[in-house]
## 1
Amino acid sequence: MTKKNTPSRNENRGVTIADVAKAAGVSIPTVSRILNDKEYVAEETRQRVHEAIRTLGYTPHTQARRLRGGATMTLALHHPIESPHDLSSVIETSYFTGTAEAASEKEYFINFLVSQLTPEALLNMYRSNQIDGIILLQVRMDDWRVNLLRENNYPFVMIGRCADLEDLSFIDLDFETAMVAAFDYLVELGHRDIGFLTYPQSWHKTGLGPAVRSLDGYQHALSKYGLRSCYREIGLNSVEEGFEGTNDLFRENPELTAIITVSHLTAAGSIKALTQHGRNVPQDCSVMAIGFGGNFASVVTPSLTTLEWSPYEVSYRATILMTEKLANELSSAQQILVPPKLIVRESTKEVT
Amino acid sequence: MTKKNTPSRNENRGVTIADVAKAAGVSIPTVSRILNDKEYVAEETRQRVHEAIRTLGYTPHTQARRLRGGATMTLALHHPIESPHDLSSVIETSYFTGTAEAASEKEYFINFLVSQLTPEALLNMYRSNQIDGIILLQVRMDDWRVNLLRENNYPFVMIGRCADLEDLSFIDLDFETAMVAAFDYLVELGHRDIGFLTYPQSWHKTGLGPAVRSLDGYQHALSKYGLRSCYREIGLNSVEEGFEGTNDLFRENPELTAIITVSHLTAAGSIKALTQHGRNVPQDCSVMAIGFGGNFASVVTPSLTTLEWSPYEVSYRATILMTEKLANELSSAQQILVPPKLIVRESTKEVT
DNA sequence: CTGAAAGCGCTTACAG
DNA sequence: CTGAAAGCGCTTACAG
């Protein structure tokens, strides 16, 4: 096995604008102009410079350009979570890919921040010119990040939304509409005894949007149809909690004919519990989930009827929004509410 | 609604090292030294400078530091895929979070590249100093990215591995071992008629590691136990393909008592097919999946026995490896093979 | 222990 | 149409 020499920095790296200028027999500014399609340049000069660029394999130094240009052309996507290890159960891959795709289209870099951030650290991201803007995930009704960024007038965009939205741009899932839509659908099928397994109490207490707004929507739906309240606040990301929540619900309300959950995981637990107690889904009880779709829905047996959003699309749009804001292309704050899509699969059925 | 003025760049941004120097009544290099804990500085001066830094809210300009320092302190993670939209079905979130976490610990930035990359574009990432190194995903036995990077002597690390590994650093899942381990486990339970739903033929043809090595491991296992071959190459990411693949397999081999799949999705399809044909899992037939774990396994009913790896850990380690390589902390190429962990759940059982 | 000088690679007025 | 000069914010020898 021949041992090769592995230098830490590469030789190719050395080609600078000065090299190109020398090779083409012109000055550095001239090369720069040609690179940036500025002003008038003699066609013959342009040819010569391009020739030099090609033979030298020159590419402008991104960092230097950015230093000169003032903008970092870098965005951050922040999800506050104690343990990044667990993020996979909280957020879908498509959030990353949607953001990454939009950023790359707009020639921005994107940094994913998946940790608890101190106010100091957040400010430093801007102050030290690491980022031009940030996209906030998991926004609370009263969110310190929003307050801080707003005070300091640093550009940001939310996926989600806080309480005071004046002049703020966001894209959010419309949970209120989703809840009512779920009831519209189930009531239409003849259901009147509907149980709801919602977000954990801790989410509600800390003012997390989905928790607060789902419950609001739930109340609307109840009064719209004159139904009585029947819900449990349970953990989001475990089949077990769905299992136990469902058992709980049925112990006190054996008459239920439908269950709405806010995660595919708890829906799966719900189905497990029902099946185990001899209730067939959807024959004896319908189950539906509100949330992100993806592959989960069809893995479950029976496959899940859902009201879902595309995290890819939502994050893509949020990122485009961020770049537009930075380019001053937004005349006013953009506030976008995305309605969910109803996808009927096998887990729901009319009451017999 | 009061209309606020939204300047595009922020005022706080202006604080530079020169401001600090002036405020503290010292020269710029002195501030720089203090910032970087260099050499001897009079304690009294240090105090004064720190004081100025604090009151001005100064943070060093990252881009400028990088320009001066030579390194971009930025890494890329590349997954080649035609449609980034579909990435969520191919790769787990934990890949991103593991990478992001390691990068942030080492004070690197990380850019996720989730698109088809041209050779030209890949070289440009280095030439234009956008990145110091790249982490390659979905590596083929003969991978143009590897060849190109190697030729140009640009630093990279693989999650996966190609055929010629001389002097290359990687961390890969040990699929051969996994296959044999699956058979060890099932044979121990008394199974001798075992069907295998493996990666699609296209993967095998393009030389994708998991496809090639799973099949190799499969052959080893067969000859180890003197069993006959019985497998199908099917699509990875759909419940349907698992469903149909299983039906296919049983049509010609009704005697099968166990199925091994390489994805949770196809395993779910497998269970669906078996159940639908009146075969109880695991009573009449065991099903197990080789691959990443996560929440999928317990969503399925019965929950899946798996041989699994943690994508968080694998990507975390790969990223650390990359930073070590860049810091020249690696005396030789690191080649790490990660064995899977067997997690017995409900979907497997001894032959009765 | 500290400052004046040069330079990282580029771009943008400013003259010609 | 093109070049000389200044500067983006920082760090690193080099003198003192």
Note: Residues 26-30, 33, 39-42, 45, 64, 66-70, 129 of chain A lie near DNA strand D (CB under 10 Å from a C1').
## 2
Amino acid sequence: MSTRNTKQRQIVLDAVKSRRDHPSADDIYLDVRQKDNRISRGTVYRNLNHLAESGEITHVRVPSADRYDLRLDRHYHLFCVGCGMVVDAPVPYQESYDETVAAETGFQIQRHRTVFEGLCPRCRAAAGEH
Amino acid sequence: MSTRNTKQRQIVLDAVKSRRDHPSADDIYLDVRQKDNRISRGTVYRNLNHLAESGEITHVRVPSADRYDLRLDRHYHLFCVGCGMVVDAPVPYQESYDETVAAETGFQIQRHRTVFEGLCPRCRAAAGEH
DNA sequence: ATGGGTGCAAAGTGTTTGCAAGTAT
DNA sequence: ATACTTGCAAACACTTTGCACCCAT
């Protein structure tokens, strides 16, 4: 056997699934501590890695700290450089890119990750009023 | 005045411009030490940040450590998950995405970053021979 | 029973920063 | 002369890990 269903792993998975805002590992840690205040950060990180590797959650790379996502389909993200908010991007994953790049480079492509950078409406307004 | 041409900054810029392999800050630090063995890591990091902000070099976000690029036009990258090698991707930057996403989300988009993940030919071969 | 999982704390990585001294303008 | 820069080392933020104990299978 190589995977066990521990109480901690389940709590971490539930925590990710109950949020729509692309939480960081520390966000999850804080949520998880509400349910069981003896879970350690190490356990949260280990389980997030494990769940992401096994495909039960998705891991999103953005500046400062990685985020986690309950969506399993491939999609892009927007990152607000003002406040760090992450949201899903309304453009489809371009599967053809992976084939094109593989064919032209000889790489065996697994996926690509796209992150749009800019200011969310709120931060834009805040920046605008100088 | 807000920008000075120090010997250190010039050496860092030259170091980035003399490489085609998307070096990390530490790679640049090591190169730079060949020319002047008193330059500190802090100075290298500060100058890389400064040069990237002023648009004289480009900064590439990939796992483990950021890289720097002498190319100034927007383009995508490939990252080998086996050896960490970074190369330019042979697909064009999709400017229309930025407009679409801005229009649909209300974000003020500055750019998007795309990184393809996979195995380079060498690592693929190494993995293949099991 | 057995080997993956946990809690804890320490150790890593990569990067930033406070400070006093140095230097480009 | 002024204020941006530097070198140094300490501090940071995020994440991983060694170890002894624990528990799901």
Note: The CA atoms of residues 54 and 130 of chain A lie 46 Å apart.
